[in-house]
Batch of 2 targets.
Target 1
Amino acid sequence: MEKKIAVIRGDGIGPEIVGEAINVLNKVAEKFGHTFIYDETLMGGCAIDAYGDPFPQVSLDKCLNSDAVLLGAVGGPKWDGVPKEIRPERGLLRMRSSLGLYANIRPTKLFPQMKEACPLKPEISEKGVDFVVVRELVSGVYFGEHRSEQVNGQEKATDIMAYTEEEIRRIAHVAFRLAEKRRKKVCSVDKANVLATSRLWRRVVSEVAESYPNVELSHMYVDNCAMQIIRAPHQFDVIVTENLFGDILSDEASIIGGSIGLIPSASMGSGTLGVYEPIHGSAPDIAGTDTANPIGTILAAAELLRNSFDMLTEAKAIEDAVSRVLDDGCRCGDIMSEGMKQVGCREMGRLICEAI
Ligand code: IPM
Ligand code: MG
């Protein structure tokens, strides 16, 4: 197959980790007889420097003309002072909404080789950790009105959180369809004891559940969920939640796997075009030092092959290669533990290519 991939390396460690993911994709192309054509484009701080805009039209056009998008990470202290309308994060949010990527899928899994790095007590992690956070990505408070005004001599700030039935319904379907392929449990997370959006969320998710009689639905308040993820993570299969809650819970969940550096993320809309990225940030403090962990981005490339190109065997080949390199005791700095062999970003990428 011949496929076109828009590549956004971004800022900080983005270029390094994406470079390794591309090496891995090239290895897969060679082994399985595919051609991947890469179209490099800018987003975030580097796009502000080049165009004065964190997600210029040319970048959007390149994404729309591709079969999938591979993304590193954006932002850094260099752009802390830019006006809020053009902050690097704004580019990311605009990309999500202009590509219609309403579903963000973030798995949390404890690799058996990573037990040492898991911060939970063994009696908790031993029961198994394997769940997915399905986060609504283009609505809620992220995309409501943000306002600041002077009221009675002091500044008052307002952020609006809004959801429509349809926005909830479509993300609920994503969660149920995913659960059907897994352990058939959906936990819908909200704050229905306080928020109107959450009461609507609960009603709509419950209605959608009627179309999936073989999937068990439960509801949980977000504060309790934050606790349960640490106290008894084995109870979760698919968690579905709104944008801000999903942002917070997915970071919390990521550390159970040992490091945020290991977790991929897929953002999908109604078609096959998706954006694939690691869930961590641009880590400007270690940029250019060849110490970043490329595994999250490499696993994101595997998700890209699986979700957007339907290349299931190829995706599995990448995941198995990552597993074998971990089995061999190779670790980047963030997941280093006693008795293991520490390697840099480039070496980790090379080892994974070799294992493929
Ligand atoms: C994420 C990030 C972004 C978000 C930031 C960088 C705007 O934290 O992808 O989780 O909040 O969605
Ligand atoms: Mg986040």
Target 2
Amino acid sequence: MSSSSITAVDQGRDLGRKIQPGPILLLGAPGVGKGTQAKELVKLWGIPQISTGDLLRANVAQGTQLGRVAKEIMGRGELVPDSLVNEMVAVRLLEPDTVRGYILDGFPRTLGQAHWLDGRLATQVESLPVVAVSIQVNYNQLLRRITGRRNCPVCQTIYNVYMNPPKKDGFCDVEGAALVQRADDTEEVFKERMRAYAALTAPVVDHYREQGRFAEVDGDRPIAAIAAGIVAAVERLRG
Ligand code: AMP
């Protein structure tokens, strides 16, 4: 990770430690930096990042039944059916590391998933309500982020060949491993993912906006500044 991420933790430390984080939703189009920001919040609050994209990719890599179904759908940039994703999230939320809170990254992505999550949390009287933070980045910027994105298969550090390149072209600064590009990070699949986002996920943003526990942050800034913005928003919403 770059020195900017350390700054993000430092900037957020005074603010972020005061609150019980509870369930946090990171919303936003593909490539806005949900994964990068979730990792910043993990360092700050010590609660887990639950990325449905990562969980699905792990299922694909392990060749599970879910992974076999999800692989082709993901390759086309479409969404995996709600019933399958909800079940996967339900199992993950039973893990004891979620008790103080968690960061959902890439979920909910449909109104069906949002209603399912609302219903699940309503049955858990001890759980704080969710707070949702949407990260905003314009379309052309997203395209550069997606097509330039590379990650280290060993430590999962995320680079961008245009905006945050590794010191040695094609290799991780930390591990020295050859960087990889996600199969769905092409321009063609990006366009389909954006169509799915506009049709199915944009209403989820409206859903949480209407509930009032919602904030938007400008994602076209350095990583540390965005992280500090998210921390401030969560603290305000929890206040
Ligand atoms: P991500 O890593 O969040 O960009 O997700 C990669 C792909 O996984 C998406 O394009 C979808 O095909 C699938 N996926 C991830 N999260 C969800 C979700 N909550 N609902 C349906 N499909 C999902």
